[in-house]
Write a structure and sequence with these properties.
Layout lengths: L4 E6 L3 H11 L6 E4 L6 H6 L1 H11 L1 H10 L12 H25 L3 E3 L3 E5 L2 E4 L4 E9 L3 E3 L25 E5 L3 H13 L2 E6 L10 H13 L3 E4 L3 E6 L4 E5 L4 E4 L1 E4 L3 E3 L32 E3 L10 H16 L13 E3 L5 E5 L2 H7 L2 E8 L2 H5 L6 E8 L5 E7 L3 H13 L4 H6 L19 E2 L1
Parallel strand pairs: 1-2, 1-6, 2-3, 6-16, 8-9, 8-14, 9-10
Antiparallel strand pairs: 4-5, 5-6, 7-15, 11-12, 12-13, 17-18, 18-21, 19-20, 19-22, 20-21
Helix pairs in contact: 1-8, 3-5, 3-6
The protein binds NADPH dihydro-nicotinamide-adenine-dinucleotide phosphate (NDP).
């Protein structure tokens, strides 16, 4: 049977765009893509990219302080010109969106700026009512912020709105203890806002190596963030210029902006017309096998919609594995065991592989740790310590995990991830010449385990 397309992608984020343009570059493949919003998805429009630019911007006040300690005479650093920065940030996001559109156009993908839904195994319906057929359908509609049901929740913002604030908040409440909450607490603390962060459990970044996250939490507090554990929001009331928040201790506090970062949920509600046979999991994710194939053999799903690992590079790899599996007839899947990631808090954290806690559950390990004051910040009388931990299998000597809390930890962990993905042993680390003087030389110079289990 002749179809309109060989592949139709719903969702123009990192994963969907990659799958569409790589497939369109193949001979004789007709590819369509529908996106109801701006091209680039969460990462480019309201996630990683504008967030990282905010990280850079919010880092300048501490760089100014350091510069003075290094002997520089500076004019007194004032507040950020929020209007100027915001406009530039939005212009950059628009520029990147244009690049995404051009990438699709130049690779021959036919785009539809509309919402689209699955009708059956080979049919999509656009918002306009037009029906399109395709041999394969790829669902890549991503995710969206998940908000708890509490009185006054309509008054809060999420990461979707944080990039378009008209003014820098003076008193910001951040709720949550995950990536987004911790990153934005650090960012707005850097910008000079007074930041309070409510974390319902007794730790930030739950699931990561506890020694590493504890150090991040300690330093976030010493940077001036009022990080509170075991506390949640009970209700929010709108006031003249802000909001009154009642917390689970019964305290009332005033904030002029409230950011909720309490997890994200797959964008799966408006995905189909009636019941198509697609199967969903308990978090509304599209259920797929390891090749990203859904319960319908011609429909695949990738990225945050499948709730496997909500990270841009994972969605892109899943897209590439999908193209390899379906269009090159070479079944390919992702190994989710060795995913490096960075959390752009201040201090930054980079991590790959097993935490000490998980590794200990699986067998005996040697733990190598080092705490040290980096040369650059120590010279500027900054007492903050950096931290590196290696988790090593006692039986095989293979390095199972690397955890870094340090300036540039995200850059360092990328390199460590190469070693881990090739199964490097501690001996391989020991045999590697250090680069001196750097922070990262500590990764290969730790001699004796701090503890063993
Ligand atoms: P996370 O899942 O990382 O964290 C959610 C946080 O919210 C947890 O601390 C959780 O607490 C808390 N929480 C959940 N429900 C409630 C509630 N009802 N009341 C109060 N607190 C609650 O989600 P994020 O929203 O921070 O980020 C979503 C995903 O986006 C991340 O998992 C990550 O994959 C991705 N991301 C990646 C980034 C990067 O690569 N640098 C940056 C930003 C996002 P508890 O721990 O107790 O469950």
């Amino acid at each position: 049977m002749g179809y309109d397309f060989d592949l139709f992608v719903i969702g123009g984020g990192s994963g969907g765009v990659r799958a569409a343009r790589v497939t369109a570059a193949l001979r004789d493949k007709r590819v369509g893509l529908a996106e109801m919003d701006r091209y680039g998805g969460t990462c480019v429009i309201r996630g990683c990219v504008p967030k990282k630019l905010m990280v850079f911007s919010s880092d300048f006040p501490s760089a100014f302080t350091e510069a003075v300690a290094y002997g520089w005479k500076l004019p007194k650093a004032n507040r950020i010109d929020w209007d100027l920065f915001s406009k530039k940030l939005n212009a950059e996001v628009s520029r990147l969106e244009g690049i995404y559109r051009n990438l699709l156009k130049n690779s021959g993908v036919q785009t539809f700026d509309q919402h689209a839904k699955v009708v059956d195994a080979h049919t999509i319906e656009l918002e306009s009512g037009t029906q399109i057929t395709s041999k394969y359908i790829l669902l890549a509609t991503g995710g969206k912020p998940d908000l708890p049901d509490i009185p006054g929740i309509d008054n809060v913002i999420t990461s979707d709105q944080i990039f378009s604030l008209s003014a820098l908040p003076e008193k910001l409440l951040v709720v949550g203890g995950g990536y987004i909450a911790c990153e934005f607490s650090s960012i707005f603390n850097g910008f000079g806002s007074s930041v309070t962060q409510f974390c319902r459990s007794d730790t930030i970044l739950r699931g990561f190596d506890i020694e590493a996250t504890s150090l991040v939490a300690t330093q976030m507090k010493s940077n001036g963030i009022d990080l509170q554990f075991g506390v949640n929001v009970l209700k929010i009331e709108k006031e003249k210029n802000g909001f009154q928040v009642t917390d689970s201790f019964g305290r009332d506090q005033y904030f002029d902006q409230i950011l909720f970062a309490t997890g994200r949920t797959p964008n799966s509600k408006e995905l189909q017309i009636g019941s198509t046979g697609l199967k969903f999991g308990i978090n509304d994710e599209v259920l797929v096998d390891k090749y990203s194939k859904s319960s319908i053999s011609s429909i695949y799903a990738i990225g945050d919609l499948t709730n496997r690992k909500q990270l841009t590079p994972v969605a892109i790899k899943e897209a590439m594995a999908f193209v390899e599996t379906v269009f090159h007839k070479n079944p390919t899947f992702l190994d989710y065991n060795c995913i490096p990631t960075a959390i752009f808090t201040k201090p930054e954290m980079g991590t790959v592989g097993l935490s000490e806690e998980l590794a200990v559950e699986r067998g005996p390990v040697d733990i190598f740790t080092t705490y040290f004051k980096p040369m650059k910040t120590a010279f500027a009388d900054n007492a903050d310590k950096s931290f590196i931990k290696l988790v090593v299998c006692k039986r095989t000597d293979i390095v199972l995990g690397v955890h870094i809390v340090a300036p540039g930890a995200g850059e360092m962990i990328q390199m460590a991830a190469i070693a881990l993905s090739t199964g490097a042993t501690k001996k391989d680390f020991d045999n590697t010449l250090p680069v001196h003087p750097t922070l990262s030389e500590e990764i290969v110079t730790m001699q004796k385990p701090t503890r063993s289990s």
